[in-house]
Amino acid sequence: MHDLAPLARFGNLVASGLRDVTHDPEALDSTGFWAVAADFEGHLTCARFDDVRTEPVPAALPGQWRGPGADDWTSSLDHAAYTSGVRRIREHIAAGDVYQVNLCRVLSAPLPDPGAADVDALTALLAREHPAAYAGTIRLPGHGVEIATASPELYLSRDDLTVESGPIKGTARTAAELLDKDRAENVMIVDLVRNDLGRVCAPGSVTVPALMRVEPYPGLVHLVSTVRGELTEKAGWSDLLPATFPPGSVTGAPKSSALTIIEELEAEPRGPYCGGIGWVDADRGTASLAVGIRTFWIDRTETAGAAGPVLRFGAGAGITWGSDPEGEWRETELKAARLLALASGVYGADRREADEYGTYEKSGRTA
Asked: Which CATH number fits domain 7-362: 3.40.50.970, 3.30.70.1130, 3.60.120.10, 3.30.460.10?
């Protein structure tokens, strides 16, 4: 694994020839093409590459990706802890502390052959079976970043001074199953994103060109909105990222209160999950960063546990006063089931099961 060269892949855009790595956001306003990975907890890694080209995502070859056993996934919050967390958030809402909180859990499983695990091979598999608008790889073995994402959600795009965000809030198996709670949640987060962008955009320039589009994805539908603004001339990445991070759709409203509650209730750091993943072309003044959802990453640190390097994946749901604890748990199951089955190599064996609610709960697994 560690013999693999650093690489970044975003759709058909591929970057290689690593030049340098920094954790300073001001570098994104300098020159060159950068791959960007920001952990939910705020750790930023920016990697500049010399060779940027367009080429198709490689075909997913049988056996190229060998993932964890389907029965080996465990969850940072089990069913009881997660539903208890939902009830606790509702208490915070009743007390007036917050309006909405995104409650997440991290799923982990040991890799059977960590030395051969290549996140770009997992990206190829996801591209074939679970295509996504912001799919990609960031592979920086020497810097602790190994990410494969099938994110459907835009955190930030940039074209000169125009910035845009595409928050997703509201998830169901079909459009008919979307609830009033989903729509209320979307409006709340759109308002939060408007406020975040308003900190760095020209007064009056922040608009909502699209509100609550129903968009289909493999196995589910989402409500998606678009928020757009015009940056002030002096605003750089060192201003834009702090103003908008972590993304509003994966925190809650008000964001500061939601982050305090998240720290109280979640058992493990989210890492790349719910962070920002994408690219910045400093020469052209363009960028595309996804919210790090539907995202896998390899953890080779000592905190991975006695089993050695593990594959991790996150799933969460937005909690409002109208939330049902069991329903929110099932939403996290829905978001995780298909992708965990793909990573474990069992999706093709039983596609129907992997697309159902509660696949892992029904089978007795803790994921």
From this structure: 3.60.120.10
